[in-house]
Design a protein that fits this description.
16% helix
Length: 227
């Protein structure tokens, strides 16, 4: 599934309290004990709601590349292909107000070949990080789990870090643009390139009025010309 900015913005409006802002998330480089079950709600692309639990020794740490979600429901265990899921929420038992929202999405990693811009395309589970009227920022790591207080834990390696993608109106899917290990100067250059149609915001980022990692402010303030 390729979620559009309209689709994800609608999701954000209906699940504003569920969004996991990455600067407030817990992160880890060690996999947690995989014996916990999480309350889970899956909304499929045909708008079916499937509620139950995922977890246990096999899946408390949900790999971002999981192509199938195994969920225990009142009717029994079901295996659901990730590509048929619109979005999925996870929460600790007795902490439903701290739901975390994940989406299965196609995304692109840019590269240049002989001076020509090209993209490699992949799919995985990503976290909704920050959403504005014209910009969505997502993030992903190796696995996802929930801390005892309900906060999202993203497991990652030193080599890859937490990866960030952005999706503007008109983009067919998120585009990889940085990671939490990137320098601020690199991120400022990335914003200048990707948000060039909003020179006011670019100037605020260039002069450090807005920090290059303040994704919430950038998503909320991004307003391309003509919009």
């Amino acid at each position: 599934m390729k979620p559009t900015t309209k689709t994800l913005s609608a999701l954000a409006a209906s699940a504003a309290l569920c969004l996991a802002m990455l600067h407030s998330c817990q992160v880890a480089q060690l996999i947690n004990n995989g014996t916990t079950y999480y309350d889970t709600e899956i909304t499929t692309v045909d708008n079916r709601l499937i509620a139950g639990e995922i977890g246990g020794q096999r899946s408390s740490n949900l790999p971002s590349g999981s192509k199938t979600i195994s969920i225990k429901t009142a009717e029994g265990r079901q295996k659901i292909k990730s590509e048929t899921i619109k979005y999925m929420t996870l929460s600790r038992k007795k902490l439903p107000e701290k739901r975390q929202t994940l989406v299965w999405t196609e995304y692109k990693i840019p590269y240049k070949k002989k001076g020509e811009q090209k993209f490699r395309t992949y799919k995985n589970w990503q976290v909704l990080n920050s959403i504005g009227d014209h910009l969505i920022i997502t993030a992903y790591g190796h696995t996802y789990s929930l801390a005892k207080d309900g906060a999202l834990v993203i497991t990652y390696s030193r080599d890859t870090g937490i990866q960030y993608c952005l999706q503007r109106e008109g983009d067919d899917c998120p585009i990889h643009f940085g990671r939490n290990t990137s320098s601020r100067s690199f991120m400022r250059k990335q914003w200048q390139e990707y948000l060039a149609d909003d020179p006011v915001l670019c100037e605020k980022i260039r002069t450090k009025e807005i920090d290059a990692f303040n994704f919430k402010a950038i998503a909320e303030q991004y307003s391309p010309k003509g919009k």
